[in-house]
Amino acid sequence: MRDDPEEGMLSWDETVFRDEHVFEIDYVPETFNHRETQLQSLKYALRPAVRGSRPLNTIVRGPPGTGKTTAVQKLYGELGTQSGVRTVRVNCQVDSTRYAVFSRIFEHIFEYEPPSSGISFKKLFGQITDRLVEEDEVLAVALDDVNYLFYENEASDTLYSLLRAHETHSGARIGVIIVSSDLALDVIEELDGRVQSVFRPEEVYFPVYGVDEIFGILRGRAKRGFHDGVIGEPELDRVAELTAESGDLRVGIDLLRRAGLHAEMRASRSVTLEDVEAAYDKSKYVHLSRCLRGLSDSERALVRVIAEYDGEQAGTVYEAFHDETDLGYTRYSEITNKLDQLGIIDTEYAEIEGRGRSRSLSLAYDPEAVLDRL
């Protein structure tokens, strides 16, 4: 036992973190292990851009938290240093319409945002392609979380414009990488025939990490992010175990950070198993929090209504939603389908006597956890 009871305590200006940014979701690690095959496949697709040709169009698929975005960011970081190549990654959870996607591309190319109104899509598109031709640049666009474009019925128009750019604007060279975490979404099947005819992509799949892989990745993050001695093997084992149960590496990365913050709250220099367990109550909802952040006001309103009428028939939910938002049934149905595809709600069909087949709606998570994060 220590003679000084405060020997293991942090003073007010101390921290357990060496570099807290290491535990941010958008952090790109210097070493990116267990994805060598996927990186090679993506390099193969992107290599033509270095020679001045259009990159091969590619679908990147896999469950959430399997390294898809990190792989694209890492390769785009390398490719962006090459002369004659322009790389743009668009987060479709934020930019979920064709106009928003091209506004983001415009911003990357011109380094300022286009006017928020008064400029047509045709003009916006023309300015982008004209600049690419003038600068003799190849554009590699990554549509990250492309499933959000499908949820908003914007995917076909967006991809059609990108893939046909060389026909409408001679000399424009654009390749597309689409990244999807929705394994239930058949990307090709859901696209219009006009897009299917020109979009014949390579496919790169990212499987869930194994427990040993998760432990190795998290240990590397902990070594870079924490000071020496802050977290031990038993605690790392528990973090890896909880991460493997979720299947999402982002849960583990967030859990390390929250466990560190919990230790700091106790003014402790080290993370305990109790810190890990306490932090997990929030970290396990990383995917839910991310999904909710991308919702519009009307979509959030429907989530609140479903929380109040959990398990009720769709008609009852619609009436309450309409009373709150004044939106019609068509928009209600679109939002319901989107929330179902995102995994925020569960829909269940049943035969109701005298009414035929009816659908009930309920939250896929604890209602309190959902409402806390709206």
From TrEMBL:
Which Gene3D superfamilies does the annotation name?
1.10.8.60, P-loop containing nucleotide triphosphate hydrolases, Winged helix-like DNA-binding domain superfamily/Winged helix DNA-binding domain
Q: Which SUPFAM superfamilies does the record match to this protein?
A: P-loop containing nucleoside triphosphate hydrolases, Winged helix' DNA-binding domain
* Segment forming the signal sequence: none
Per UniProt, which keywords does this protein have?
Answer: ATP-binding, DNA replication, Nucleotide-binding
Record domain AAA+ ATPase: where: 54-203
One of the entry's Gene Ontology molecular-function terms is:
ATP binding
Q: Which InterPro entries does the UniProt record give?
A: AAA+_ATPase (IPR003593), AAA_16 (IPR041664), Cdc6_C (IPR015163), Cdc6_lid (IPR055237), ORC1/CDC6 (IPR050311), Orc1/Cdc6_arc (IPR014277), P-loop_NTPase (IPR027417), WH-like_DNA-bd_sf (IPR036388)
* Annotated binding of ATP, by residue: 66-70, 209, 221
Family membership noted in the UniProt record? Belongs to the CDC6/cdc18 family.
Q: HAMAP family in the record, alphabetically?
A: ORC1_type_DNA_replic_protein (MF_01407)
Name this protein carries in UniProt? ORC1-type DNA replication protein
- Per the UniProt entry, what species is this protein from, by scientific name? Halogeometricum borinquense
